[in-house]
Each structure stands twice: as structure tokens, then as C-alpha cells.
């Protein structure tokens, strides 16, 4: 049985964190500082924009694809992901076409995930569904499309959408939908230890955090 969130240690939570810097104004110096902090904190990975690759670190390196709008063609998303893998990315977090999900066109959502999956080979692929912008039914259908397309994780949010970021309710619904077949990443607006633990309790097994130190300091 997995430990309850209240019994998790600082190191256990840190090992679930993608330590993230995706601000458009981020500089190479900012990325270097992110890496140094991530290594000090013992996080799972650092997550940076594709243009900041390659990154020299002992940690795993994640990047984003079709970020943050998702309004890129499947071919462009696939090409971006392929270039990121060639530049050393270990994991790719792609944004779906959220409008397609809102419109109920989950064939398109599945097709674009499949296009990226084909170019990412053995790299971990996470699918950002922008859960705050979707109905519960659309969240379920987006998760089902990700499973059918061969993704490794479903992820709540970019953190850039005006509808908001991760919610406990969305994470719980995503976990109920994918069961133990996929990972669930909660990301977007998680700034406190309590919020992080609530996401884990709801079923998240990865967290996307930019304020990682503050979250871990509460443990």
C-alpha cells in the first residue's frame, strides 16, 4: 500500500517534482540557477522550454511541446518534440488542442498525441489537457484519448490558461479514468505544501512546481 500523503517525507515528495521554469523571459542564467536548486532539493527532473535545451545536469530533463496554447498542427508538435529529444530531453509534456476537446473532436486529440508519440520513441510523454477549461466529460474523454494514443501521463494544466490550474477534483477524476495505466501529473498554481499533498492524495504521482523550495519547506 502506498504511504498516505501525511506520512510522506520531504525527500519522497521532492522525488515526485518536475522543477519548472517556463517563463518566456527566462535566461540561460535562470536555467542554470534552476538546475542548481533542483539538484540541491533532490527533485525528479527539471522542466524547461525547448529553446533552452540542451541542459547539463545529473537530473532528468523535461520540456514542453505545443506550449502553452496547443494551437499548433500535429506535424509541428511532432517536429518540436523530435528536436527536443535530439537535444537531450528525457520527457516531453505536450499540450493538446484544447478547442478540439471543448468541441468534442477527440479523434483529432488522439491523432495529435499519436503524432507526437511516434517521434518521441521511448521518451516519457505527458499530455496536458488543460483540465480547468474542460467539462468533466471532456476531461474523461481527453484522458481516454491519451491512453489510446500511448501516452505515459496525463497532466492537468500549463499554468498559463486564464481558466486556472490544477484542482483536486480534476486530479481525482483523471486518476479514476486512467487507473494505474498512466501517471497523473498535477501542475499549475500549486504553491503550498497543503496543496501539493492534496494533489497527491487525489491521485497525482508527479507534481509540476516552480516554487518547489517553498512547498518542500513545509515538510
TrEMBL record:
It is found in: Cytoplasm. Pathway: Carbohydrate degradation; 2-deoxy-D-ribose 1-phosphate degradation; D-glyceraldehyde 3-phosphate and acetaldehyde from 2-deoxy-alpha-D-ribose 1-phosphate: step 2/2. It catalyses: 2-deoxy-D-ribose 5-phosphate = D-glyceraldehyde 3-phosphate + acetaldehyde. It comes from the Bacteria. The active site is at residues 93, 155, 185. Its main location: cytoplasm. The keyword Calcium does not apply. Its EC number is 4.1.2.4. Keywords: Cytoplasm, Lyase, Schiff base. SMART domains: DeoC (SM01133). Pfam families: DeoC (PF01791). Belongs to the DeoC/FbaB aldolase family. DeoC type 1 subfamily. Catalyzes a reversible aldol reaction between acetaldehyde and D-glyceraldehyde 3-phosphate to generate 2-deoxy-D-ribose 5-phosphate. This is Deoxyribose-phosphate aldolase. It comes from Arsenicicoccus piscis.
